[in-house]
Amino acid sequence: MGSEKVRPSALAVQGLATLSIAYLTTLTGFIYAWPSYTLDMFRSNGTVLSTPMTPTEISLLGSLTNVGGLVATPFCGYAVNKFGRKYAAILYGLPYVISWAIISVTRWPALVIAAVGIGGFGAAGQAVSSVYISEISQDSIRGALTSTTVSGFFAGLLFSYAIGGQLTYHEVAYVHLGLSVLYMVLLLFLEESPVYLVQIGKDKEAAKSIAFYRRASPTSKEVEIEITRIKQQMDPRINEILQGECDPTAAKELIKNKEAKVKQRSVSQWSFLMKSESSKRALVAVLIVMSVTILMGSIVLQVYAEPLFKEAVPSMQPNLCSILLALTYLIASLVCAFMVDKFGRKSLMTVTSVGSAVCTFLLGTQLHLHWGPHWMTAFFIYAYSFIYNLGAAIVPFVLTAEVFLPEVRGLGNSMSMSCMWIMNFVTLIIFNPLVELLGLGPVFYGFSCICLLGAAYSHFWLPETKGLPADAIQRLFLKGGKNEIGAKIEMK
Protein backbone atom coordinates (compact mmCIF):
# COMPACT_ATOMS: atom_id res chain seq x y z
CA MET A 1 0.00 0.00 0.00
CA GLY A 2 2.84 2.37 0.79
CA SER A 3 4.13 2.08 -2.80
CA GLU A 4 0.88 3.05 -4.50
CA LYS A 5 1.32 5.35 -7.46
CA VAL A 6 -0.43 8.70 -7.64
CA ARG A 7 -1.40 10.12 -11.01
CA PRO A 8 0.03 13.60 -11.69
CA SER A 9 -3.51 14.92 -12.18
CA ALA A 10 -4.61 13.34 -8.89
CA LEU A 11 -1.59 14.83 -7.13
CA ALA A 12 -2.50 18.26 -8.49
CA VAL A 13 -6.14 18.00 -7.35
CA GLN A 14 -5.29 16.60 -3.92
CA GLY A 15 -2.56 19.20 -3.54
CA LEU A 16 -4.79 22.14 -4.44
CA ALA A 17 -7.58 20.84 -2.23
CA THR A 18 -5.10 20.44 0.62
CA LEU A 19 -3.86 24.00 0.22
CA SER A 20 -7.46 25.24 0.37
CA ILE A 21 -8.18 23.24 3.53
CA ALA A 22 -4.86 24.09 5.20
CA TYR A 23 -5.57 27.76 4.45
CA LEU A 24 -7.50 27.72 7.75
CA THR A 25 -4.22 27.49 9.66
CA THR A 26 -2.93 30.44 7.64
CA LEU A 27 -5.80 32.43 9.13
CA THR A 28 -4.64 31.19 12.54
CA GLY A 29 -1.19 32.57 11.78
CA PHE A 30 -2.77 35.97 11.07
CA ILE A 31 -4.51 36.16 14.46
CA TYR A 32 -1.34 35.05 16.29
CA ALA A 33 1.01 37.47 14.54
CA TRP A 34 -1.24 40.54 14.62
CA PRO A 35 -0.88 41.47 18.32
CA SER A 36 2.94 41.44 18.16
CA TYR A 37 3.13 44.46 15.86
CA THR A 38 0.12 46.34 17.27
CA LEU A 39 0.91 46.16 21.01
CA ASP A 40 3.12 49.27 21.09
CA MET A 41 0.46 51.29 19.31
CA PHE A 42 -2.29 49.99 21.62
CA ARG A 43 -0.23 51.03 24.67
CA SER A 44 0.50 54.55 23.43
CA ASN A 45 -1.59 57.69 23.60
CA GLY A 46 -1.57 57.69 19.81
CA THR A 47 -3.63 54.52 19.62
CA VAL A 48 -6.45 54.20 17.07
CA LEU A 49 -8.63 52.89 19.89
CA SER A 50 -10.71 55.11 22.17
CA THR A 51 -8.20 54.71 25.03
CA PRO A 52 -4.78 53.07 25.47
CA MET A 53 -4.86 49.46 26.67
CA THR A 54 -3.91 48.66 30.24
CA PRO A 55 -1.27 46.01 31.05
CA THR A 56 -4.07 43.57 31.92
CA GLU A 57 -5.77 44.17 28.58
CA ILE A 58 -2.47 43.71 26.76
CA SER A 59 -1.99 40.38 28.54
CA LEU A 60 -5.49 39.25 27.55
CA LEU A 61 -4.90 40.28 23.94
CA GLY A 62 -1.95 37.91 23.73
CA SER A 63 -3.53 34.96 25.54
CA LEU A 64 -7.22 34.78 24.63
CA THR A 65 -6.53 33.10 21.29
CA ASN A 66 -5.25 30.06 23.17
CA VAL A 67 -8.27 30.11 25.47
CA GLY A 68 -10.64 30.28 22.50
CA GLY A 69 -8.84 27.39 20.82
CA LEU A 70 -9.01 25.24 23.94
CA VAL A 71 -12.71 25.95 24.45
CA ALA A 72 -13.69 25.19 20.84
CA THR A 73 -11.45 22.16 20.21
CA PRO A 74 -13.70 19.57 21.97
CA PHE A 75 -16.48 20.54 19.55
CA CYS A 76 -14.37 19.38 16.57
CA GLY A 77 -15.08 15.69 17.15
CA TYR A 78 -18.82 16.36 17.15
CA ALA A 79 -18.69 18.75 14.19
CA VAL A 80 -16.85 16.45 11.77
CA ASN A 81 -19.40 13.67 12.32
CA LYS A 82 -22.49 15.88 12.51
CA PHE A 83 -21.87 18.31 9.64
CA GLY A 84 -19.23 16.43 7.65
CA ARG A 85 -15.60 17.36 7.12
CA LYS A 86 -16.27 19.99 4.47
CA TYR A 87 -18.94 21.98 6.27
CA ALA A 88 -17.22 21.65 9.63
CA ALA A 89 -14.11 23.17 8.02
CA ILE A 90 -16.21 26.02 6.63
CA LEU A 91 -17.84 26.50 10.03
CA TYR A 92 -14.45 26.99 11.68
CA GLY A 93 -13.60 29.74 9.20
CA LEU A 94 -16.59 31.82 10.36
CA PRO A 95 -14.97 32.98 13.66
CA TYR A 96 -12.18 34.64 11.69
CA VAL A 97 -14.65 36.55 9.53
CA ILE A 98 -16.48 37.73 12.66
CA SER A 99 -13.21 38.55 14.44
CA TRP A 100 -11.73 40.73 11.69
CA ALA A 101 -15.09 42.36 10.98
CA ILE A 102 -15.27 43.50 14.61
CA ILE A 103 -11.65 44.69 14.61
CA SER A 104 -12.30 46.64 11.40
CA VAL A 105 -15.10 48.75 12.85
CA THR A 106 -14.58 49.03 16.60
CA ARG A 107 -12.49 51.48 18.62
CA TRP A 108 -13.33 49.95 22.01
CA PRO A 109 -10.44 47.94 23.55
CA ALA A 110 -12.76 45.39 25.17
CA LEU A 111 -14.31 44.52 21.80
CA VAL A 112 -10.88 44.15 20.16
CA ILE A 113 -9.86 41.73 22.92
CA ALA A 114 -13.15 39.82 22.55
CA ALA A 115 -12.61 39.63 18.78
CA VAL A 116 -9.19 38.00 19.28
CA GLY A 117 -10.84 35.47 21.60
CA ILE A 118 -13.45 34.71 18.92
CA GLY A 119 -10.62 34.18 16.44
CA GLY A 120 -9.31 31.53 18.82
CA PHE A 121 -12.46 29.48 18.16
CA GLY A 122 -11.36 29.27 14.52
CA ALA A 123 -7.85 28.20 15.58
CA ALA A 124 -9.39 25.01 16.98
CA GLY A 125 -10.37 24.02 13.46
CA GLN A 126 -6.91 22.60 12.73
CA ALA A 127 -8.26 19.29 14.08
CA VAL A 128 -10.95 19.38 11.38
CA SER A 129 -8.44 20.34 8.68
CA SER A 130 -6.17 17.42 9.57
CA VAL A 131 -9.02 14.90 9.41
CA TYR A 132 -10.32 16.29 6.11
CA ILE A 133 -6.89 16.29 4.43
CA SER A 134 -5.98 12.79 5.64
CA GLU A 135 -9.23 11.37 4.24
CA ILE A 136 -8.88 12.82 0.74
CA SER A 137 -5.16 11.96 0.43
CA GLN A 138 -3.70 8.74 -0.91
CA ASP A 139 -1.56 6.87 1.59
CA SER A 140 1.75 7.43 -0.21
CA ILE A 141 1.44 11.24 -0.06
CA ARG A 142 -0.67 11.60 3.08
CA GLY A 143 2.22 12.69 5.30
CA ALA A 144 3.33 15.45 2.95
CA LEU A 145 -0.21 16.78 2.52
CA THR A 146 -1.22 16.69 6.20
CA SER A 147 2.00 18.50 7.14
CA THR A 148 0.76 21.55 5.20
CA THR A 149 -1.50 22.45 8.13
CA VAL A 150 1.66 23.48 10.00
CA SER A 151 3.24 25.14 6.95
CA GLY A 152 0.02 27.11 6.49
CA PHE A 153 0.31 28.51 10.01
CA PHE A 154 3.88 29.69 9.41
CA ALA A 155 2.86 31.22 6.07
CA GLY A 156 0.19 33.17 7.94
CA LEU A 157 2.72 34.42 10.49
CA LEU A 158 5.11 35.53 7.77
CA PHE A 159 2.46 37.25 5.65
CA SER A 160 0.94 39.10 8.61
CA TYR A 161 4.35 40.25 9.90
CA ALA A 162 5.22 41.48 6.41
CA ILE A 163 2.08 43.54 5.78
CA GLY A 164 2.06 44.80 9.36
CA GLY A 165 5.03 46.99 8.61
CA GLN A 166 3.66 48.25 5.29
CA LEU A 167 -0.08 48.89 5.73
CA THR A 168 -2.15 50.95 8.14
CA TYR A 169 -4.02 49.41 11.07
CA HIS A 170 -7.36 49.32 9.24
CA GLU A 171 -5.84 48.18 5.94
CA VAL A 172 -4.33 45.17 7.71
CA ALA A 173 -7.71 44.33 9.23
CA TYR A 174 -9.47 44.61 5.84
CA VAL A 175 -6.88 42.35 4.15
CA HIS A 176 -7.26 39.72 6.86
CA LEU A 177 -11.05 39.96 6.65
CA GLY A 178 -11.03 39.51 2.87
CA LEU A 179 -8.70 36.52 3.05
CA SER A 180 -10.91 34.92 5.73
CA VAL A 181 -13.95 35.17 3.46
CA LEU A 182 -11.90 33.75 0.57
CA TYR A 183 -11.13 30.62 2.62
CA MET A 184 -14.82 29.83 3.07
CA VAL A 185 -15.51 30.41 -0.63
CA LEU A 186 -12.69 28.10 -1.74
CA LEU A 187 -14.01 25.19 0.31
CA LEU A 188 -17.37 25.36 -1.46
CA PHE A 189 -15.68 24.00 -4.61
CA LEU A 190 -14.34 20.86 -2.87
CA GLU A 191 -15.95 17.45 -2.54
CA GLU A 192 -16.86 16.04 0.86
CA SER A 193 -14.58 13.41 2.42
CA PRO A 194 -15.41 9.95 1.01
CA VAL A 195 -14.94 8.46 4.49
CA TYR A 196 -17.71 10.63 5.90
CA LEU A 197 -20.00 9.86 2.94
CA VAL A 198 -19.55 6.11 3.44
CA GLN A 199 -20.09 6.63 7.15
CA ILE A 200 -23.56 8.09 6.53
CA GLY A 201 -24.45 5.50 3.87
CA LYS A 202 -23.97 7.63 0.72
CA ASP A 203 -21.88 5.22 -1.31
CA LYS A 204 -22.61 6.80 -4.71
CA GLU A 205 -21.57 10.23 -3.46
CA ALA A 206 -18.48 8.65 -1.90
CA ALA A 207 -17.56 7.10 -5.26
CA LYS A 208 -17.89 10.51 -6.93
CA SER A 209 -15.70 12.06 -4.23
CA ILE A 210 -12.96 9.45 -4.62
CA ALA A 211 -13.16 9.82 -8.40
CA PHE A 212 -12.82 13.61 -8.05
CA TYR A 213 -9.70 13.45 -5.90
CA ARG A 214 -8.07 10.55 -7.77
CA ARG A 215 -9.11 11.68 -11.27
CA ALA A 216 -10.70 8.32 -12.02
CA SER A 217 -14.09 7.08 -13.17
CA PRO A 218 -16.68 6.64 -10.37
CA THR A 219 -17.29 3.10 -11.67
CA SER A 220 -13.62 2.12 -11.88
CA LYS A 221 -12.07 -0.77 -9.98
CA GLU A 222 -9.80 1.67 -8.14
CA VAL A 223 -12.78 3.53 -6.69
CA GLU A 224 -14.57 0.28 -5.83
CA ILE A 225 -11.52 -1.02 -3.95
CA GLU A 226 -11.15 2.23 -2.01
CA ILE A 227 -14.78 2.16 -0.90
CA THR A 228 -14.36 -1.45 0.19
CA ARG A 229 -11.26 -0.50 2.17
CA ILE A 230 -13.13 2.32 3.92
CA LYS A 231 -15.94 -0.07 4.78
CA GLN A 232 -13.46 -2.57 6.16
CA GLN A 233 -12.13 0.07 8.55
CA MET A 234 -15.69 0.85 9.65
CA ASP A 235 -16.84 -2.74 10.09
CA PRO A 236 -18.27 -3.30 13.61
CA ARG A 237 -15.93 -6.27 13.96
CA ILE A 238 -12.79 -4.19 13.33
CA ASN A 239 -11.51 -4.39 16.90
CA GLU A 240 -11.85 -8.18 16.96
CA ILE A 241 -10.39 -8.53 13.47
CA LEU A 242 -7.34 -6.47 14.42
CA GLN A 243 -6.80 -8.36 17.66
CA GLY A 244 -7.33 -11.78 16.04
CA GLU A 245 -10.28 -12.63 18.29
CA CYS A 246 -12.65 -13.64 15.53
CA ASP A 247 -12.60 -15.75 12.38
CA PRO A 248 -9.38 -14.77 10.54
CA THR A 249 -11.21 -14.98 7.22
CA ALA A 250 -13.77 -12.36 8.26
CA ALA A 251 -11.90 -9.42 6.79
CA LYS A 252 -11.27 -11.21 3.49
CA GLU A 253 -14.93 -12.17 3.26
CA LEU A 254 -15.85 -8.52 3.80
CA ILE A 255 -13.61 -7.47 0.92
CA LYS A 256 -15.17 -10.03 -1.39
CA ASN A 257 -18.64 -8.91 -0.43
CA LYS A 258 -19.14 -5.97 -2.78
CA GLU A 259 -22.60 -5.29 -1.42
CA ALA A 260 -21.45 -4.95 2.19
CA LYS A 261 -23.15 -2.13 4.04
CA VAL A 262 -21.70 -0.12 6.89
CA LYS A 263 -23.73 -0.99 9.96
CA GLN A 264 -25.08 1.90 11.97
CA ARG A 265 -23.54 2.12 15.39
CA SER A 266 -25.36 3.02 18.55
CA VAL A 267 -22.03 3.17 20.36
CA SER A 268 -20.49 6.61 20.90
CA GLN A 269 -16.98 7.59 19.79
CA TRP A 270 -15.85 7.48 23.41
CA SER A 271 -17.27 3.99 23.95
CA PHE A 272 -15.59 2.76 20.77
CA LEU A 273 -12.29 4.25 21.95
CA MET A 274 -12.56 2.54 25.32
CA LYS A 275 -13.22 -0.84 23.66
CA SER A 276 -10.43 -0.54 21.11
CA GLU A 277 -7.02 -1.43 22.56
CA SER A 278 -5.20 -0.29 19.43
CA SER A 279 -7.01 3.07 19.40
CA LYS A 280 -6.15 3.69 23.05
CA ARG A 281 -2.50 2.93 22.43
CA ALA A 282 -2.48 5.16 19.36
CA LEU A 283 -4.01 7.98 21.42
CA VAL A 284 -1.40 7.60 24.17
CA ALA A 285 1.40 7.71 21.59
CA VAL A 286 -0.01 10.84 19.94
CA LEU A 287 -0.48 12.62 23.28
CA ILE A 288 3.07 11.78 24.37
CA VAL A 289 4.60 12.99 21.12
CA MET A 290 2.46 16.15 21.09
CA SER A 291 3.30 16.99 24.73
CA VAL A 292 7.02 16.36 24.40
CA THR A 293 7.46 18.35 21.19
CA ILE A 294 5.69 21.41 22.60
CA LEU A 295 7.74 21.22 25.80
CA MET A 296 10.86 21.43 23.61
CA GLY A 297 10.40 25.21 23.78
CA SER A 298 9.54 26.38 20.28
CA ILE A 299 6.31 28.04 21.44
CA VAL A 300 8.44 30.28 23.67
CA LEU A 301 10.36 31.56 20.65
CA GLN A 302 7.13 32.12 18.71
CA VAL A 303 5.43 34.16 21.44
CA TYR A 304 8.47 35.94 22.86
CA ALA A 305 10.41 36.31 19.60
CA GLU A 306 10.83 40.08 19.67
CA PRO A 307 11.75 40.49 23.38
CA LEU A 308 14.13 37.50 23.19
CA PHE A 309 15.91 38.90 20.16
CA LYS A 310 15.96 42.36 21.73
CA GLU A 311 17.69 40.99 24.82
CA ALA A 312 19.90 38.41 23.13
CA VAL A 313 20.77 40.30 19.91
CA PRO A 314 20.37 44.02 20.60
CA SER A 315 22.17 44.91 17.37
CA MET A 316 19.34 43.50 15.23
CA GLN A 317 15.92 45.06 14.68
CA PRO A 318 13.38 42.94 16.63
CA ASN A 319 10.67 43.07 13.94
CA LEU A 320 13.14 41.97 11.26
CA CYS A 321 14.23 39.09 13.51
CA SER A 322 10.61 37.98 13.86
CA ILE A 323 10.06 38.04 10.09
CA LEU A 324 13.23 36.01 9.51
CA LEU A 325 12.15 33.56 12.21
CA ALA A 326 8.76 33.04 10.56
CA LEU A 327 10.53 32.56 7.21
CA THR A 328 12.79 29.94 8.81
CA TYR A 329 9.74 28.09 10.18
CA LEU A 330 8.05 28.12 6.79
CA ILE A 331 11.06 26.92 4.78
CA ALA A 332 11.76 24.10 7.23
CA SER A 333 8.13 22.94 7.24
CA LEU A 334 8.05 22.89 3.43
CA VAL A 335 11.25 20.83 3.32
CA CYS A 336 9.68 18.49 5.89
CA ALA A 337 6.67 18.00 3.61
CA PHE A 338 8.99 16.49 1.00
CA MET A 339 10.87 14.38 3.54
CA VAL A 340 8.14 12.95 5.76
CA ASP A 341 6.91 10.38 3.20
CA LYS A 342 10.45 9.58 2.05
CA PHE A 343 12.23 8.99 5.35
CA GLY A 344 9.23 8.25 7.56
CA ARG A 345 7.82 9.79 10.73
CA LYS A 346 9.92 7.83 13.23
CA SER A 347 13.38 8.61 11.86
CA LEU A 348 12.52 12.24 11.12
CA MET A 349 11.21 12.73 14.66
CA THR A 350 14.27 11.06 16.21
CA VAL A 351 16.94 12.88 14.20
CA THR A 352 15.40 16.35 14.50
CA SER A 353 14.81 15.90 18.23
CA VAL A 354 18.51 15.12 18.72
CA GLY A 355 19.45 18.10 16.54
CA SER A 356 17.10 20.33 18.54
CA ALA A 357 18.69 19.11 21.77
CA VAL A 358 22.15 20.12 20.54
CA CYS A 359 20.95 23.56 19.42
CA THR A 360 19.03 24.35 22.63
CA PHE A 361 21.99 23.25 24.75
CA LEU A 362 24.40 25.47 22.80
CA LEU A 363 21.90 28.33 22.91
CA GLY A 364 21.57 27.85 26.67
CA THR A 365 25.35 27.99 27.17
CA GLN A 366 25.56 31.13 25.04
CA LEU A 367 22.77 32.87 26.97
CA HIS A 368 24.19 31.67 30.28
CA LEU A 369 27.94 32.12 29.79
CA HIS A 370 28.07 34.63 26.89
CA TRP A 371 31.03 32.79 25.41
CA GLY A 372 30.48 34.06 21.86
CA PRO A 373 29.47 37.24 20.00
CA HIS A 374 25.83 38.32 19.72
CA TRP A 375 25.45 36.85 16.24
CA MET A 376 26.08 33.38 17.70
CA THR A 377 22.89 33.73 19.75
CA ALA A 378 20.91 34.57 16.64
CA PHE A 379 22.54 31.69 14.77
CA PHE A 380 21.56 29.12 17.42
CA ILE A 381 17.98 30.43 17.58
CA TYR A 382 17.56 30.12 13.82
CA ALA A 383 19.36 26.76 13.68
CA TYR A 384 17.12 25.34 16.40
CA SER A 385 14.00 26.72 14.73
CA PHE A 386 14.96 25.21 11.38
CA ILE A 387 15.88 21.75 12.71
CA TYR A 388 12.87 21.57 15.03
CA ASN A 389 10.43 22.47 12.26
CA LEU A 390 12.14 20.03 9.91
CA GLY A 391 10.48 17.17 11.77
CA ALA A 392 9.69 17.37 15.48
CA ALA A 393 7.19 20.20 15.01
CA ILE A 394 5.37 18.48 12.14
CA VAL A 395 5.32 14.77 13.02
CA PRO A 396 2.75 15.04 15.87
CA PHE A 397 0.20 16.59 13.50
CA VAL A 398 0.86 14.01 10.79
CA LEU A 399 0.43 11.18 13.31
CA THR A 400 -2.74 12.72 14.71
CA ALA A 401 -4.26 12.81 11.24
CA GLU A 402 -3.45 9.22 10.29
CA VAL A 403 -3.33 6.82 13.26
CA PHE A 404 -7.03 6.68 14.19
CA LEU A 405 -9.82 4.57 12.72
CA PRO A 406 -12.64 6.56 11.08
CA GLU A 407 -14.97 5.86 14.02
CA VAL A 408 -12.80 7.83 16.46
CA ARG A 409 -10.83 10.07 14.12
CA GLY A 410 -12.73 13.18 15.12
CA LEU A 411 -12.46 12.43 18.84
CA GLY A 412 -8.78 11.49 18.60
CA ASN A 413 -7.91 14.69 16.74
CA SER A 414 -9.90 16.78 19.21
CA MET A 415 -8.09 15.25 22.17
CA SER A 416 -4.71 15.73 20.51
CA MET A 417 -5.43 19.38 19.72
CA SER A 418 -6.72 19.95 23.26
CA CYS A 419 -3.43 18.54 24.51
CA MET A 420 -1.62 21.01 22.25
CA TRP A 421 -3.50 24.01 23.67
CA ILE A 422 -2.97 22.85 27.26
CA MET A 423 0.75 22.23 26.79
CA ASN A 424 1.15 25.60 25.03
CA PHE A 425 -0.48 27.25 28.04
CA VAL A 426 1.62 25.28 30.54
CA THR A 427 4.87 26.05 28.72
CA LEU A 428 4.14 29.77 28.48
CA ILE A 429 2.83 30.10 32.03
CA ILE A 430 5.92 28.52 33.61
CA PHE A 431 8.50 30.10 31.30
CA ASN A 432 8.82 33.52 32.94
CA PRO A 433 8.86 32.20 36.55
CA LEU A 434 11.55 29.68 35.56
CA VAL A 435 13.60 32.41 33.87
CA GLU A 436 13.39 34.55 37.03
CA LEU A 437 14.36 31.57 39.20
CA LEU A 438 17.07 29.94 37.09
CA GLY A 439 17.98 32.39 34.33
CA LEU A 440 17.33 32.25 30.59
CA GLY A 441 20.26 29.96 29.77
CA PRO A 442 19.45 27.15 32.26
CA VAL A 443 15.83 27.08 31.04
CA PHE A 444 17.13 26.14 27.61
CA TYR A 445 19.16 23.35 29.21
CA GLY A 446 15.80 21.98 30.34
CA PHE A 447 14.43 22.25 26.80
CA SER A 448 17.49 20.30 25.60
CA CYS A 449 16.78 17.45 28.05
CA ILE A 450 13.17 17.25 26.86
CA CYS A 451 14.36 17.08 23.25
CA LEU A 452 16.47 14.05 24.14
CA LEU A 453 13.49 12.41 25.86
CA GLY A 454 11.48 12.94 22.68
CA ALA A 455 14.23 11.35 20.60
CA ALA A 456 14.39 8.34 22.94
CA TYR A 457 10.62 7.79 22.87
CA SER A 458 10.50 8.07 19.10
CA HIS A 459 13.43 5.71 18.55
CA PHE A 460 12.39 2.97 20.97
CA TRP A 461 8.58 3.08 21.11
CA LEU A 462 7.03 5.02 18.23
CA PRO A 463 5.87 2.78 15.33
CA GLU A 464 6.58 3.81 11.74
CA THR A 465 3.30 4.67 9.98
CA LYS A 466 4.61 5.87 6.60
CA GLY A 467 2.34 4.96 3.69
CA LEU A 468 0.06 2.64 5.69
CA PRO A 469 -3.77 2.65 5.82
CA ALA A 470 -5.50 3.19 9.17
CA ASP A 471 -6.23 -0.50 9.86
CA ALA A 472 -2.60 -1.48 9.19
CA ILE A 473 -1.41 1.33 11.48
CA GLN A 474 -3.68 0.02 14.24
CA ARG A 475 -1.94 -3.35 14.08
CA LEU A 476 1.33 -1.62 14.88
CA PHE A 477 -0.06 -0.49 18.21
CA LEU A 478 -1.10 -4.02 19.21
CA LYS A 479 1.24 -6.59 20.72
CA GLY A 480 3.32 -8.12 17.95
CA GLY A 481 1.96 -5.50 15.57
CA LYS A 482 5.35 -4.89 14.01
CA ASN A 483 5.44 -8.48 12.82
CA GLU A 484 1.86 -8.50 11.70
CA ILE A 485 2.14 -5.59 9.32
CA GLY A 486 3.52 -7.77 6.57
CA ALA A 487 0.34 -9.79 6.75
CA LYS A 488 -1.94 -7.01 5.55
CA ILE A 489 -4.89 -8.25 3.59
CA GLU A 490 -4.33 -7.92 -0.11
CA MET A 491 -7.25 -6.20 -1.78
CA LYS A 492 -8.42 -7.72 -4.97
TrEMBL record:
<feature type="transmembrane region" description="Helical">
    <location>
        <begin position="173"/>
        <end position="190"/>
    </location>
</feature>
<feature type="transmembrane region" description="Helical">
    <location>
        <begin position="443"/>
        <end position="462"/>
    </location>
</feature>
<feature type="transmembrane region" description="Helical">
    <location>
        <begin position="58"/>
        <end position="80"/>
    </location>
</feature>
<keyword id="KW-0812">Transmembrane</keyword>
<dbReference type="Pfam" id="PF00083">
    <property type="entry name" value="Sugar_tr"/>
</dbReference>
<feature type="transmembrane region" description="Helical">
    <location>
        <begin position="87"/>
        <end position="105"/>
    </location>
</feature>
<feature type="transmembrane region" description="Helical">
    <location>
        <begin position="411"/>
        <end position="431"/>
    </location>
</feature>
<dbReference type="InterPro" id="IPR005828">
    <property type="entry name" value="MFS_sugar_transport-like"/>
</dbReference>
<feature type="transmembrane region" description="Helical">
    <location>
        <begin position="12"/>
        <end position="34"/>
    </location>
</feature>
<feature type="transmembrane region" description="Helical">
    <location>
        <begin position="282"/>
        <end position="305"/>
    </location>
</feature>
<feature type="transmembrane region" description="Helical">
    <location>
        <begin position="317"/>
        <end position="340"/>
    </location>
</feature>
<feature type="domain" description="Major facilitator superfamily (MFS) profile">
    <location>
        <begin position="10"/>
        <end position="466"/>
    </location>
</feature>
<dbReference type="InterPro" id="IPR036259">
    <property type="entry name" value="MFS_trans_sf"/>
</dbReference>
<dbReference type="InterPro" id="IPR050549">
    <property type="entry name" value="MFS_Trehalose_Transporter"/>
</dbReference>
<feature type="transmembrane region" description="Helical">
    <location>
        <begin position="111"/>
        <end position="133"/>
    </location>
</feature>
<feature type="transmembrane region" description="Helical">
    <location>
        <begin position="379"/>
        <end position="399"/>
    </location>
</feature>
<feature type="transmembrane region" description="Helical">
    <location>
        <begin position="347"/>
        <end position="367"/>
    </location>
</feature>
<keyword id="KW-0472">Membrane</keyword>
<keyword id="KW-1133">Transmembrane helix</keyword>
<dbReference type="InterPro" id="IPR020846">
    <property type="entry name" value="MFS_dom"/>
</dbReference>
<feature type="transmembrane region" description="Helical">
    <location>
        <begin position="145"/>
        <end position="167"/>
    </location>
</feature>
<protein>
    <recommendedName>
        <fullName>Major facilitator superfamily (MFS) profile domain-containing protein</fullName>
    </recommendedName>
</protein>
